[in-house]
Design goal:
Length: 333
């Protein structure tokens, strides 16, 4: 009997290698598939966006607490002036006791930050804690110079710098005056508007200031609060306010072309009907144009519309802010 080893079949060997190469190829292609690359690029973009947002917010907060510190130590605190809100309470206690303002800023705002944690969010509370501690350190350690002793200048410019600081901090996602957090909470519970709650809160502060300090100080405090409040609005909303325009005209296509091509602005078209008529069938269909421009551009836009159709009906409404679109892509020429 003959014993011999079986020789491998060349065809089966080739199939084995083909299957092996195919498996390796699939694994490699799976590792570097376009979908995986897309997910990686999305993650990288998200990381970049987060870093950019964090850097921007940090810069806003640092500028904010620096300006607020300047308003407090350069104007209000040396001249025994106060403001409204939580900062006003801190100043009022500081001027009637021996407790340092830097400590009071933290203690007075602490309950508002706890409230903000539940009402707004963890990130907001964390940023606010850091901003308030930063402001307290600035007030305690940085020796700002005394700018003026003129009471009117103190009230106006002290309020201006304090308001600018509060506004910049809010743009950074934090607060250094927690009054609005309390106002949001009470508004949800009572139904009273946020503005009315803040007004009532400040009336109480100014009344105490008039009783404890003097009526004159309370009156200047109201002026300081008005300057600070208006500055906060400008910093948050921007000097360049936006206006939404609804444009109704028989020559809507020409107006649309003018806005998009000549002015370089985006538009939205609504299909509508004229409401003047006895029967529904007689109501005329019309394209309604909606666009958003800054208040500096309104006059130019109205002039261009009048050139096309003097009978155009325009409705304007104020808009606080916009995101995306073509608002800031290129300036009017």
């Amino acid at each position: 009997m003959c014993y011999c080893k079986d020789k491998p079949n060349p065809f089966s060997v080739r199939l084995i290698f083909q299957q092996l190469f195919k498996t390796i190829k699939n694994q490699v292609s799976r590792k570097s598939s376009p979908s995986d690359d897309k997910h990686k690029s999305i993650k990288i973009e998200l990381i970049k966006a987060n870093i950019t947002d964090l850097t921007r917010d940090t810069l806003f907060i640092i500028i904010g607490i620096t300006l607020a510190g300047f308003g407090l130590k350069g104007f209000l605190l040396p001249n025994l002036f106060i403001d409204g809100g939580a900062m006003g309470i801190s100043l009022l206690i500081s001027e009637t006791t021996t407790v340092p303002l830097s400590i009071l800023i933290i203690l007075v705002n602490f309950p508002f930050i706890i409230l903000g944690y539940s009402q707004v969010g963890k990130q907001f509370a964390f940023k606010s804690v850091l901003a308030i501690i930063g402001l307290a350190l600035i007030v305690h350690f940085i020796p700002y110079p005394l700018i003026t002793s003129d009471k009117l200048l103190i009230a106006v410019f002290g309020g201006f710098f304090l308001g600018a600081g509060i506004g910049m901090s809010i743009r950074g996602g934090a607060v250094i005056d927690g009054t609005e957090v309390l106002a949001i909470y009470l508004s949800k519970k009572t139904g009273v508007t946020i503005g009315d709650i803040i007004l009532i809160f400040n009336i109480l502060i100014f009344s105490f200031a008039a009783y404890i300090l003097s009526i004159e100080v309370a009156l200047y405090a109201i002026l300081t609060y008005m300057a600070a409040s208006k500055t906060v609005d400008y910093v948050i909303e921007g000097v360049e306010e936006y206006t939404g325009l609804t444009i109704i005209s028989d020559k809507s296509e020409q107006i649309r072309t003018m806005i998009t091509e000549k002015l370089g602005r985006g538009v939205t078209i609504y299909e509508g009907k004229g409401g003047f008529g006895k029967e529904k069938k007689s109501l005329k269909k019309i394209d309604i144009i909606y666009t958003v421009v800054t208040r500096l551009e309104i006059a130019r836009l109205q002039t261009e519309i009048r050139k096309i159709d003097p009978e155009t009906f325009i409705i304007m409404n104020s808009i606080k802010d916009t995101k995306g679109g073509m608002i800031k892509k290129r300036p009017l020429k």
